[in-house]
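Agenda item 2: DGJ complex prediction
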Amino acid sequence: MIAFDNGTKSLLLSGKNYSYCMYINCAGLLQHLYWGKKIGAADAAFLVTAHGLPASPNPDDYNKDMATDGMPSECGSFGRGDFRPATVIVRREDGAAMSRFRYVSHKIVKGALHLQGMPCARKADETLILTLKDDFSDIELDLNYSVSEDSDVLVRSAVMRNAGKDAAEIAKAFSFCTELPDTRGTWSALRLAGSWARERTPVVTPLAEGTLRIESARGYSSHQMNPFLAVLSEDCGEESGECYGFNLLYSGSFAITADVSHNKSIRVQGGINDFLFGWQLQGGETFATPQAALCYSAEGLGGMSRAYHDFFREYIIDPKRVYARRPVVINNWEATYFDFDNEKLCSIIDEAAKLGMDTFVLDDGWFGKRDGDTSGLGDWFVNEEKLKGGLKAVIGHCKEKGLKFGLWFEPEMVSEDSELYRAHPDWAIGKAGVEPCRGRNQLVLDFTRKEVVDYIFETVSKILRENEISYVKWDKNRDITENYTANLPADRQGEFWHRYTLGFYGLAERLTKAFPNVFFEGCAGGGGRFDGGALYYFPQIWTSDDTDGLERTKIQWGTSVCYPVSAMSCHVSACPNHQTGRTTPFATRGAIASLGATGYELDLTKLSEEEKAQVREQIENYKLIDELVLRGDLYRLADPFDGNYFCEMLVSKDKSKAYLVGERFRGDPCDHDRVMKLFGLNESKTYTIRELNVTASGAALMGAGLFCPRLPDCGSWVWHIEEV
Ligand code: DGJ
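Presented output:
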């Protein structure tokens, strides 16, 4: 619900459990008032009088004494007395860069906003479009706010329009700005940081005066920093206390900042990375920022996570795919790497069929001249020397055995040793005369160029058209360097990063539209592009190259802070684990992988009969719980970063069914009495736990809990919980 009160000039936006309030002060500046638990329309007037300070009744005062420096704002200005980080900065043709935006008009429209060429929330009940105008240039700015009755997520974005004749440069264009006023306690910020094979580790640091900035300058969202920040109140825990989430629905270089100012308010804002950013707007042109998904929770981090999970499932991921049963995949990467032939693949397919798997995914190495990572990328035609009879032979074998077929691509990349590079060396990103940096021996294609994206669309489409392919794994294995395109003049190089991201989105949009029956899985050297933008095209993303039965608990835990478990591809791999060298029980690897879109990634022909029996059992188990993976509410019970246990639980929305997976990292004799209290059940319902042959009320299971089994190193347990 969005309500405007003409008397107080206040705007009150409410979703499922929250309200967000602002008002247009006498100087036409958009002043933030409140974001928290749901309040009524009448409260907006109270907020204006009680919290509209230091607003002055005299418009002239806004130019005096730097009055805006302490004002909670919805759009931070630049060069006009507000010295905190600005939200939007415009540089005029004469070089002057000052920006302060004032209210012009607003409208409330039904439904969501669709931003051309970018992923965005697929629906909303209502959208508020607030139009502001810069005091110093001809730039008009729409601040957009979408709300829905059934969601705790507020979707924001900004659109800039050059209403004049002179060109202007948008020197900074963040998607949102908000302020958490009067935070005099000890507040902290949580970010999801990491690296390859250690994606999305939650890191919590106190906030203090000054600016905390998280960012990616790698050309994509990155392993190192997810485009997400949460600001936590002093009492915020896993299931209690207040927190605020800020998630950019964006896969490119980004920045989110949290600035604690002199008056202890926290200005949080974010969007496209403003470092060396610049976007030229000629008269009449517009520029849209990516959307941001803001979430308030009064139920701690767990409440915020569940709100985001619902949001991604209901508003972002393709509705045709999101709740559809996911195939149990067998992927050959860790089984063969580049070293395979028909015989090897067929032997894996035969076993997969016997064990009840659904789809065989042929990973890297099937195309061009690709027997290692130094060649072949860009040549998207089958290597018939390696695969006799081409893809058709492998696909035919899959069909014979009742399996579907999936294929790996890395569409954005090129190897110097490839036919594509030899024909079009200028299609790779770089500056002529500068030796390029190489990542994994490869270069990045210049996706700011339409002809490059068109070519890749055609070659990938040809393979998808000519073969029966039901699944595509879309990989990306390096960062972007040299950040330069010959496609743009010198004064527009600041557009490069965002234009690259638009090229990626353009290709994803075209391929997913052209092949609606193909399931697209995202990947970026593991989970390097696991973000809300990518989820719009890829209902599921490879979470990490680290499939170790212990490390994965941490990676999946961290990923779940924002993203639903159904979006995480989770595979059982061989031991000793190829990344860590650790050996964990087969059952544990299966149990952890069942907390996501499960699959296998190992040479099935090398499994013992006992392990094969376990695979059959794991797949049977998965069929019993995959509805919970797709639709359930997640409760995180034991934090793997903090102690000897990992434990998570999925509960059906009607609270009639739950599934719990736990792991004990060390078989520590002094740690034998750990009680796990369950969460999310209905206190007055009675439940059974199949594996324990126990019957108890939800109140007892949540209040008293259950002893965890005494297990040796990396032992795991699963409990199926059902209402009687
Ligand atoms: C990185 C991915 O994360 C792996 O799963 C695999 O597809 C390799 N790339 C192939 O090169």
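Discussion summary: The mean pLDDT is 96.
Owner for follow-up: CH.
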